[in-house]
Amino acid sequence: MPNAIGIIYANSSTDNLQGLALRRPIAAIPFGGRYRILDFALSSMVNSGIRTIGVVTSQPYRTILDHLGAGKAWFLDRKDGGLFILPGVMHSLAGDGHTFCVKDLRENLHYLQKDFADNVIISHGDQIYNMDFKDALNAHNDTNAEVTLIYKECHTLGDPIHERVIKMNEGEKVSGILDKKVSDSGTLVQPHFTNMLIIRRQLLVDIVEQYGSFGCRDLVDIVASNLEVLRVYGWPTCSVIGTIRTVKDYFDRSMDLLGWEVREKLWLGENQIHTIIVDNPPTRYTSQAKVSHSLIASGCYIAGEVVNSIIFRGVIVEQGCKIEDSIILPKCHIHALAKTCYAILDKSVSVNAENVFRGSLNHPLVVLNTAVS
Amino acid sequence: MKQQECVALLLAGGQGSRLGGLTQNRAKPAVSFCGKYRIIDFGLSNCTYSNINTVGVLIQYKPFLLNSYIGLGSAWDLDNPFSGGVHILPPFLGNSEGSWYNGTANAVFQNYEFINFYNPKYVIILSGDHVYKMDYNLMLKFHKEKNSEITIATIPVPQEETSRFGILTADEEARVTDFQEKPLQSKSNLASIGVYIFNWATLKQALIEDDEDFHSDNDFGKNIIPQQLQDGTKVYAYKFQGYWRDVGTIESYYHANMESLSAGHFLNVFDPKFRIFSNEDTLPPHFMGSSAEIENSLVCNGCIVHGTVINSILAPGVYIGKGVYIKDSILLPYVKVRDGSIINKTIVGEKAEVLSQCIIGAEGSHASDQEGITVVEDYHIISEGSVIEAGMNV
Questions:
Q1: Which residue among A267, A299, A319 closes a domain?
Q2: Cβ separation of A279 and B292 shorter than 8 Å?
Q3: What are the strands of the beta sheet with B325-327, ordered from one edge?
Q4: What is the C-alpha separation between A222 and A216, in angstroms, rounded?
Q5: B298 → closest Cβ in A277, A279, A284
Q6: Would you call A283 and B286 a contact, using CB atoms and an 8 Å cutoff?
Q7: Are the C-beta atoms of residues B88 and B165 closer than 8 Å to each other?
Q8: Burial A238-276 (b: 16+ CB within 10 A, else e)
Q9: SS3 of B45, please?
Q10: pLDDT tens track for B306-318
């Protein structure tokens, strides 16, 4: 068993998701037909053998607490360790750009102090990945690092995923952590920090005690300004990592799942993504159903046409409907002859008969369940 | 430990030999049904729905897959030790006695101590190989109202099918006057559905007497019930209204599955108030490829479909390659069908693999056997280009 506990920051919210993150943190947005975004970070940690995981949450709580429960779906309903909810502080502005706010941990210092593990693996809860942390943890111990930043080689132009790039000497020792905006090294491919790191537990406790009472200080910034006194290393990963910050991100990362390669890496390896099970019946297709190049969850009733789309659990698509390039969240009901194209329907949206919702590839239309009567 | 009013015993030890290849590796209650379910899900979910929280599952034949499926019973919310929960009850040895379960009544008799431990007022005996939704509380209420000692749940069956069932004759007060096990000539069309409620005191006495009778086959239908009727015990027939199917033969298993494809199906697994739980793997949503065509079918999580599927049921994790044509068939969990194969009116067993360009269920000389339903055994690999005639078991 790895000598580490986990922390997942599931408290970031944003206005860039057109209301999808209005009543829930980004981490609790449904994703990929039956999951929520948080499931990916949580399952990766569990599959890496971590048995104690704290989830940092903030208002609004309901969805995330409802989803996590006692952590049973992730086998975290343990006597020894298990799932811990770490209520974070209230942030004044939604989406104020912090990665890992130290103040959030100050309220939960006990979680860090009472454990015996040497290391803490910290990840953001608003990204999609299926990763084994064991190799990173081994490297962290082999180099005797105090902090190991997990990075991925990305195109600075093409891959819009992360905000920070790191600079390393030989031997992967980190010499600089820079904002992507200000870094101007001229090279196209740079090591992007993936918002996942491993830190010595005692060091984290010290940092929280020292910096926790100041406004909202970012853990990564604190590490960046102490590079000279800390042993900070990088560790490369080649996992698929998708960060969700905007509607376009959400749409593109979802549609990536229709490609075999992404699905294979994310879902079809030996490490499964776990989520709560609701025991839906199988999905029923009628004789009129036409479905191609789509992902469809259980408990649906499909009588219309579905193309290039992702359909979540318990969705009803009536006869004569056409769902094209759309993402339909759980329990939506699309009445007869309605059409959607480049649309994202939030949970439980009911589309009236013959209605048409049309967005575009670059601006997918988000339909909230408050928006339609 | 809370005193339980009613304890359930689920008879799940039968081999189910009439299901042929489907029960080669597993007990009948562990056979997959309607895509995501297994037959035992119905009995266990009924118990949960009826608030019967102490369930003993009697096992004997090939128990491993069944045991691991049931686990602690948490998938059915039956993992509450305060009110009993699920207990797996295999045959066992004592100091001087002990043997395999020899008949249904003997199996219950051997678990005398289990029932005594909870010392309930009533014992409900269920069989683990039927597909049905039933609120046992309604039957228990009937049992109490009639001041009955033994209550047998019944449904009316067509006169020509009476020879397959235990047939009861009851007077206008619903008191049973006669019981015939699989009669050639029947006096009534009320068939027992294998659900009995006994007063524990009555059952205790009946089991002891049955055990002492060396001529007895130790079977509820054949011995206990007729003997109790003869002894003048108060036996009542409860008329169950709702969906109930026996899935003991390849033909009945096939038809019960296929019925779930028709609209307005009785079983109504979609009913949110009475859900059927199951212990499923967490698989991703199913993927329909660009060349997929689907018509009137059920598809479960984790499937990948590139071919044509008509009037069929795909259980979790099934793979359908390009150019495959599946019609009127049931594919059990994790079946793989490679490119270009044709499958017609076939039950393909769990984890079986059909390599490319096969034809299964081709018209041929066996067509009259088991209504022309072809069965491929669990884990079987059908080599490339094979042709298997309809009605065969491979």
A1: A267
A2: no
A3: B293-295, B308-310, B325-327, B342-344, B359-362, B387-389
A4: 11
A5: A284
A6: yes
A7: no
A8: ebbbbbbbebbbbbebbbbbbeeebbeebbeeebbbbbb
A9: helix
A10: 999 999 999 999 9
Q: Is A324 found in the same domain as A183?
A: no
* Average pLDDT rounded to a whole number, residues A98-108: 85
Among B334, B311, B330, B394, which Cα is nearest to B358's? Answer: B394
Pair of tokens at residue B387 = 């042709």
Q: Do residues B345 and B252 touch, judged by C-beta distance below 8 A?
A: no
CB contact under 8 A, A294 and B287: yes
- A214-242 confidence digits (pLDDT tens): 778 889 999 999 999 999 999 999 888 88
Residues A163 and A262 in one domain: yes
Residue A353: CATH number of its domain? 2.160.10.10
Q: Is A81 within the bounds of a domain?
A: yes
My answer on whether A16 and A60 are in the same domain is yes
Peptide bond into A87 cis (omega under 30): no
Q: How far apart are the C-alpha atoms of B344 and B388, rounded to whole Å?
A: 10
Longest dimension (CA), chain A: 68
Tell me, what CATH number does A21's domain have? Answer: 3.90.550.10
B289: chain A residues, CB-CB within 8 Å: 292-293
A335 and A226 in one domain? no
Rounded CA-CA distance A366/A359 in Å is 8
A307 and A167 in one domain? no
**A78 and A143: one domain?**
yes
Residues A223 and A297 in one domain: no
Task: Domain of residue A291: give its range.
Answer: 284-367
3-state secondary structure A18-69: CCCCCCCCHHHCEECCCEECHHHHHHHHHHCCCCEEEEEECCCCHHHHHHHC
Distance from CA of B28 to the nearest CA of A (A): 21
Q: Which chain A residues have a beta carbon less than 8 Å from that of B298?
A: 281-285
Q: What pLDDT, on a 0 to 100 scale, did the predictor assign at position B6?
A: 93
Do A261 and A315 share a domain, yes or no? no
Residue A265 Cα to chain centre, angstroms: 16
Mutate to test the interface with B, among A258, A283, A315, A316 (most CBs of B within 10 A): A283
Ordered structural domains, chain B, with CATH: 6-259 (3.90.550.10), 287-389 (2.160.10.10)
Instruction: Summarize pLDDT for A19-33 with one digit per residue, the tens.
Output: 888 888 899 999 999
> For residue range B260-307, what is the model confidence (pLDDT) as tens digits?
888 666 566 667 778 889 998 889 999 999 999 999 999 999 999 999
Amino acid at A119: N
Element housing B25 (H / E): none
User: Is A109 within the bounds of a domain?
Assistant: yes
| ipTM of the modeled complex | 0.87
Helix (H, G, I), strand (E, B) or coil at B269: coil
